[in-house]
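seq as requested:
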Amino acid sequence: MNQWVEESTKYRREEEPLMLDLVFTKKPEPPPSIHYLSPMGRSDHVTLELEILEEDGIRFRDDYKKEMKLCRN
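struct tokens:
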């Protein structure tokens, strides 16, 4: 197991900021690119956007979009 999230992900008024415990991935090599975005709505959790590349350089996210297009046809 690897800890990829390195910044606090939960902020609540007077409480100490907390970090997300786990992000489950499948073969995360090389390490994912993580973007910490603004919370959605009234949430006290930041939004995490992860981009994970397979060893051969194919993006999981791009492959998913291609599969979705094929399913619609």
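The chain is about 20% helix and 15% strand.
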